Amino acid sequence: MIVILTHRQMDFDALASMVAAQKIFPDSLMVVDGKSNPYVQDFIALARDRLPFSRPKDVDWAKVEKIVLVDTHNLQRAAGIKEGVFEQIPLVIYDHHPYDGFLTEEMHIESIGSCTTLLIEELRKMAVQLSPFEATLLALGIYDDTGSLLFESTTVRDVKAVAYLLEQGANLGVVAEYLRKPLIEEQKELLQQLLDNGKTEDFRGQPVYISWAESDDYVGGLALIAHRVGEMEGAETLFLVVQMENRVYLVGRSRGRGIEVNRITQAFGGAGHTRAASATVKHASVAEILKQLKGELAQQAHRINRVRDIMSYPVKTVSPEMKLSEVEQILLKYGHTGVPVAQGEKLVGIISRRDVDKAIKHGLAHAPVKGFMTKDVVVVEADSSWEDVQRTMVQHDIGRVPVLEEGKLAGIVSRSDILRIIHGSAVPTEMSLTRHRSLAMREDILGLLEELPEQIRSLLAAAQQVADELGYSVFVVGGFVRDILLKVPTQDLDFVIEGDGHAFARALAQRLQDVQVVFHDQFGTARLDFADGSHLDVASSRREDYSSPGALPQVEESRLRDDMFRRDFTINAMAIAVNSVRYGELVDYYGGLRDLKQGEIRFLHNLSFIEDPTRILRALRFAGRYGFRLAKETREGLYTALDAGVLQKLSIERFTEEFMHMLSELKFGVMGESLLDMGVFPKWFGAELPWDFTHPGLNQAISPERKWLICLRRMDRSQFERIEEKLRLARELKGIAYKFFDIMDGLLSLGVGEKGSEASPYAREKISLKSLDQYLEGLPALLMEVLLWDERFRDSLEAYTEAVKAIHQTVDGTALRQWGVKEGPEIGRILKAVRLAWLEGKLQTEEEEKEFVLGLLKDGLSNRPKGETTCST
């Protein structure tokens, strides 16, 4: 026999969980005891025929083989269970309340909004069908425990469970009827007592509303009454102490910014969530519980948030002499509505975006900030409370307030910072962006990390050990994160350290051994070079600014968020935590994961291409590599940058470097077409050149040299010389290109590929194999392959290639010397004649070749072969 139990004072979530559990365990009994929530009692009274409950006294407990416990993980809280009686019976638990112990296979405990949700997920896996009545009851359980899906504890899983129940026929009208019932007279009397007796007290800066009431009879619905008190008093944290019959009931509620109420109720043997918890104490007085409650609050209440805890730092400032046009770029880049003006460490004013825009509109872009800044600046001290800042912002209608400490600028606090305190996770904080976006993916990322090659995994393990030992937060960033999420092979390892990057690099090198460390003091970075030629980069978290478009960045120390902001695109601005306690967590401040899923390349700010024009080429390279598209604002930003002439401010070396990266890519043809379509090449080379990026070979795994020649094959020498002026080509690429144009020029001089009459695509002039051979003999296979792809030369070259295949020349200079030919040009002339005879098909065998050579020696080469063989184009 299997029995299903839940806690005393059963609510709708508990009732619904029992019904769902019975669907999973069809032959089980639902056992209840004691009083339930009055609304639950009403529901059961109307639906008694459909809810076959048993009482503990009616159960033969000796035959019980398993207990299924729902909506609590404490068997002692179950209705009708006496301590120690059933400890030997196997127990299956479904619960959503916090649990810090060890989880066994039979314990299904997860922190979500409703216990019913857990069981619905099991029912969906089992494909169990629900009746409309069952679906409505289960929906009632979820809505009751999640505040109609409005409580902070509500998760996506709860919402999906409700959607599934609606598909199964749940009636939300019935749900609303039971959740919106008015208070009964006894509840109203209890509510009035709680309002009359309540007051707010301060515990280490935390305001807590505490009230008490007494009733000779049990009054259900205390959770609903606590909700009403919270609404009416507007309390961040409240505790109600209510004595009914011989028990004292303690109920705690918090809006998320206050105290974790379950930590308080645990001292009374209770349980619950951080936002809602309760406890029941037998044979105690209200006065005793109130005294103990206040003692627990005094011990466990944490210090309220001060400005220093929520402010942003270091602060981006401008000097009084800076031009308004420069300030405009800073405000645009960082998305600020204003920026402090500082002379050294002293705050002297603040300039708003509105004032900057007005001044520039009047033609004052080159005027200094000092003439337009507000000198009477509203500030707060670092030890002020967040409520003080909130009042200051409301009073002065300002959105950013500088923070001072000992008269010096220490940080800045914004409306967003205050909203995060007030609304919690509704306004994401830096921590929530780190955790909430990544925790759901952490297991997946850990799995991807486990699939990496042993060498990379060992390297990450070593970095983790060093990070933990030094106490630094360490992240692997950029391309590694992007590629591992895309599940493509990656070897690109870059570390960012929230700490001393050089110290980390030295410690890591010592642990790895046989590693050379190169420090770059200018950029605050280090590189570890390995014996196999690979390397990894290490940097302290930093921010980069550019003095002019195309210039190298100026680096300053900053936090990880700013370090990510300096990168080119959102998909490259993600990090994975390396430290052991957070290993595998994704840091994604700017939506890189979203853009990976949507297949978009998105820059991080509007000045991205202006600051670094090479990002234009990188945007097209990443788009081509992954088959992505440019986001709308990024595409518009690219056109704006090109129109502003930023490419002309870029050095030839940097442009060439980015282009060479493209040339090594598999989808080079796609990238090349984008360079033309977006207008990058016409802007850079100053002309519309006949590039060929449409050939299928450009998107295949062939060598960069082949791709280079293919895209040039429609040009002439003068057009290539224009390209050479704007690219710093490697000697090999330059040499093979000129060789290619030499051959093309030679073939065209022979008339190969010349257009003929309208009746035929090309002239059918006879081009001798001898003439072709003077240009094509010994030609590298690469050049011949590309020339064969050119329809102008294909016919002639195919005929020539077939003729060359038939050459089986065996005679060489050694043989001729043995036959008495003296060393000198005569040997070369004979060998050339033999090759031509083979090429023209006059020789077929080694014997014929020997007779031919002997004839040449006899005639002294006086008689040349007549009737040269030709090929047609």
Automatic annotation (TrEMBL):
It comes from Desulfitobacterium hafniense (strain Y51). One of its GO terms (molecular function) is metal ion binding. Belongs to the tRNA nucleotidyltransferase/poly(A) polymerase family. This is CBS domain-containing protein. InterPro entries: CBS_dom, CBS_dom_sf, DDH_dom, DHH_sf, NT_sf, PolA_pol_head_dom, tRNA_nt/polyA_polymerase. Residues 311-369, 373-429 form the CBS domain. SUPFAM superfamilies: CBS-domain pair, DHH phosphoesterases, Nucleotidyltransferase, Poly A polymerase C-terminal region-like. Pfam families: CBS (PF00571), DHH (PF01368), PolyA_pol (PF01743). It comes from the Bacteria. Signal peptide: none annotated. Its cofactor is Mg(2+). PROSITE patterns: CBS. Keywords: CBS domain, Magnesium, Metal-binding, Nucleotide-binding, Nucleotidyltransferase, RNA-binding, Transferase, tRNA processing, tRNA-binding.
